[in-house]
Design goal:
The chain is mainly alpha-helical. It is 62% helix and 4% strand.
Length: 854
């Protein structure tokens, strides 16, 4: 009888390369934009209308003309022409009306888009009534560059220095950044600088566009709505730089920037546009990282932040962090020409030069070592509100109410009557030698009225243990006060932040306020939250509210909910509505469902539509569809496109396909890229490849990284590698972790290990758990154990289950068992099946059985 080996017990299904990802997405929808308002599209509706009107005129005039004319025709023919013309007029008149109404509506929409674009243009900063060139913009405040310490009284003597901006100290990334801008002059693109507050991101970006694109126009939209109106209204942005300083502000709120808008802007290489933005690392990670509650790659944060993540994925990222020794050396060379740099350089420490110039140390000192506890509490309140995703300007009632949460009972009891006014005065006082930089600054849209206060970005980003505001201090009561007093439109991003922190009750309350105020996105988020919590009735209610209000994500959410409940016909209907409303997720969910139902032609149509929008997940899923259809060349093309767009799942899938095709070098390259970007399946697969190639140290490193990130397949394979190396205790630990997490292959391997150790009861228990979950290798292992124990009936039962599921080792062992029991016909049947499937021992046993009978 065939012996059971560890290699056989370790499932090929577990050790195989993993490439599939979660299909059912409920992310916010993207909307495509018509191009009828440009070029030929603008003229075409009028030509169609003119042609239709001419036809009606002819049909209307023909009966009268024939009737009145004295033509030498038979009377019956004249009467027929008259009657026919009248009938045609009766038929054509409503058709013409419908056509003219549709054309009028289309023209109205185009006019509205153009009007919105004109309004957006009027809101942009201009120089002498025109959009300025990059080289003409020197306003520090307009660009969002932090105010710097002022020049000394005699600082300009003998120097040609800007009062607004200190001399620029070249950064290490300048060459690469400017090369990237030069490379995008012909095609356009999106460049994003990532770095902490006051690291010099904005100044670096400004100097880069001045050097590379001085004669391009500079558009500085104040918000996402303005940029969206410019794009959808067909504004001429050719050879323009779009300035997206503090990019996170464009990715939140009800009118946040959509990836489809950027794709529309960037797709036309004949009219190149370059977007350049800045963002904090913490915010970048929050918006881009997917929090997954299961092995699927579709998790909570991904769903809520998916639109922002797709926007960020379109960008070429440059990191700007701690000042390097080379950068400080360049600063030293400029100390003699700019006294501000000389002054800041004297205090060189952990802070960078840009932070020193913007008085970061003084700001932090004022906050941490406050001599006014009420002012300190106000600063802390404003900082905490910002960290909870409140928009930059925090209203006075919100700050005042939150501040009391950061005061002791005694401090509240002894607060003077004018505590708030005095504390605000203190908190808004500029720090020493800062040129006006203060912890808080008042903001107003109209003269004579303060709308609220903005905390310095430096303090919002200051999370050292010594900072007065910590995560622990953001208590449920702080969230309650913030959500209660914040404006409804501010509650949408606040709820998103609470959700990302897994504060579900706080997120629900915030989104409820936003939804009650009419936010369809908040309605959808509430549906998603209730769906996640298993309250399908409430989820359906909120999805329906969102759908009825025109939110495509709500339509898609209803489809997902009904699909899970088994109502595929209703799911298909909702997916179709979502797709028609422009939901990319609805399109590929519909395609997936159609493919399941066998309608591959329709599935291919919807996959193509979704993928053609440039949506990375859609391209990735279309690749799977094509791969299943056997069209690996097309699958590779779409995965390549998605991978080039930064989709790590596509990189992993592309690596899987290349590995299958024998191109291990290319497979390794793509897995390396995906693994470096944090994809745990790629880490697992890279470990497998390295293990396969004999580089066990590197394999162990990647398996460990993936396992530490929760990948149970990597845990299992790490255990296998450790067992090979003789570290059986560590192997058992990893198998146990994976088995406890539900990995059935690890259950089988753990059972084998215990079987080896002589603990057959525990081995049988783990084999049974895995076998009951459908693991065919565990069924085979359990059959082997039971046969050894003499329970041939039970062994035969488990061997049969595994063999029926395609396990060739079980087919062979079942043949052995049946032959031993004298049932040679049945044995021959199983040997034949196993041999036909490539099992060499079964082929040998079949030959011997046939020879024995001759």
């Amino acid at each position: 009888m065939e012996a059971l080996s560890l290699a056989q017990s370790l499932s090929s299904a577990s050790r195989r390369l993993r490439s599939r990802s979660y299909f059912w997405s409920m992310a916010p929808a993207l909307r495509t934009v018509d191009d009828d308002d440009m070029g030929w599209g603008r003229l075409r509706p009028w030509l169609a209308l003119f042609g239709t009107l001419v036809a009606v005129a002819v049909l209307t005039a023909a009966p009268a003309g024939v009737s009145a004319g004295e033509l030498p025709w038979p009377k019956w023919l004249v009467a027929g022409v008259v009657a026919g013309g009248g009938a045609l007029v009766a038929v054509w008149t409503p058709l013409v009306k419908a056509r003219t109404d549709a054309l009028a509506a289309r023209t109205t929409r185009a006019a509205e888009r153009h009007a919105a674009a004109e309004g957006a243009l009027n809101r942009l900063p201009t120089v002498k009534g025109k959009i300025p060139l990059v080289e003409d913009v020197t306003d520090r405040a307009l660009l969002g560059i932090h105010e710097a310490i002022p020049l000394p009284a005699d600082g300009m003597i003998g120097h040609d220095l800007s009062v607004e901006l200190p001399t620029y100290v070249p950064r290490d990334i300048d060459a690469d950044l400017r090369a990237a801008l030069e490379a995008r002059r012909r095609t356009g693109g999106f460049v994003l600088l990532v770095g902490p507050a006051a690291a010099g991101k904005t100044r670096c970006a400004y100097e880069a566009i001045r050097a590379a694109l001085p004669h391009w126009r500079l558009f500085v939209p104040g918000d996402a709505a303005t940029l969206t109106e410019l794009v959808t209204g067909g504004a001429d942005l050719k050879h323009s730089v779009v300035w997206l300083n503090e990019t996170q502000n464009f990715l939140s709120g009800p009118d946040r920037l959509k990836a489809s808008t950027l794709r529309q802007l960037l797709v036309d290489a004949a009219h190149p546009v370059i977007l350049i933005g800045t963002i904090w690392p913490t915010t970048y990670d929050q918006l881009r990282t997917s929090a997954s509650s299961s092995e699927s790659e579709s998790g909570e944060r991904e769903e809520v932040n998916k639109e922002a993540r797709e926007v960020l994925d379109l960008a070429r990222r440059f990191s700007l962090g701690t000042w390097s020794n080379h950068e400080w050396a360049r600063a030293e060379e400029l100390t003699s020409s700019d006294p501000r740099i000389a002054q800041a350089s004297r205090y060189r420490g952990e802070a960078g030069l840009a932070q020193m110039l913007s008085a970061a140390p003084e700001l932090i000192h004022r906050w941490e070592q406050a001599d006014n506890v009420f002012g300190q509490a106000l600063i802390t309140a404003a900082v905490v509100a910002r960290r909870c995703n409140h928009p930059d300007t925090v209203p006075i009632p919100v700050i005042a109410a939150l501040a009391q949460e950061f005061l002791t009972g005694a401090q509240r009891a002894t607060a003077p009557e004018e505590w708030l006014a005095d504390a605000l005065t203190w908190a808004c006082r500029p720090v020493h030698h800062s040129g006006g930089i203060a912890p808080l600054r008042a903001v107003a849209e109209a003269i004579g009225r303060v709308d609220g206060y903005q905390a310095s970005d430096i303090l919002v980003d200051h999370t050292a243990p010594s900072a007065p505001a910590s995560e622990e201090q953001i208590t449920p009561e702080v969230w309650r006060i913030l959500v209660k007093l914040a404006a409804p439109e501010a509650c949408l991003p606040i709820g998103t932040r609470a959700f990302s922190m897994r504060l579900r009750p706080e997120a629900a309350v915030a989104w409820k306020r936003a939804a009650d105020a009419g936010s369809t996105r908040a309605m959808y988020y509430l549906g998603f939250l209730r769906h996640e919590q298993g309250d399908t009735d409430a989820a359906r209610t909120w999805y329906t509210h969102a759908a009825d209000a025109g939110n495509a994500s709500g339509l898609n959410g209803l489809g997902v909910l009904l699909r899970e409940q088994g109502d595929t016909d209703a799911a298909r209907a909702w997916y179709t509505r979502a797709s028609d409303a422009g939901s990319i997720e609805g399109m590929y969910n519909l395609a997936f469902l159609l493919n399941e139902q066998g309608d591959t032609d329709a599935a291919r149509t919807w996959y193509t539509r979704a993928a053609s929008t440039g949506h990375a997940d859609a391209m990735h899923n279309f690749g799977f569809f094509l791969s299943d259809q056997g069209d690996t060349d097309a699958a590779r093309t779409w995965w390549q496109r998605a991978a080039d767009a930064g989709n790590t799942k596509a990189m992993n899938s592309l690596g899987f396909l290349l590995h299958e095709q024998g191109d291990t070098d290319a497979a390794r390259t793509w897995w390396q890229r995906a693994a470096d970007a944090g994809n745990t399946e790629a880490m697992h697969n890279l470990g497998f490849l390295l293990h396969e190639q004999g580089d066990t140290d590197a394999a162990r490193s990647w398996y460990t990284r993936a396992a530490d990130a929760g990948n149970t397949g990597a845990m299992h394979n790490l255990g296998f590698l450790l067992h090979e190396q003789g570290d059986t205790d560590a192997a058992r630990t990893w198998w146990q972790r994976a088995a406890d997490a539900g990995n059935t292959d690890a259950m089988n391997s753990l059972g084998f290990f215990l079987h080896e150790q002589g603990d057959t009861d525990a081995a049988r228990s783990w084999y049974t758990r895995a076998a009951d979950a459908g693991n065919t290798d565990a069924m085979h292992s359990l059959g082997f154990l039971l046969r050894k124990q003499g329970d041939t009936d039970a062994a035969r039962s488990w061997y049969t289950r595994a063999a029926d599921a395609g396990n060739t080792s079980s087919m062979y062992n079942l043949g052995n068992l049946l032959r031993a029991q004298g049932d040679t016909d049945a044995a021959r049947s199983w040997y034949t099946r196993a041999a036909d499937a490539g099992h060499t021992k079964a082929a040998t046993a079949l030959d011997r059985l046939n020879q024995a009978e001759i």
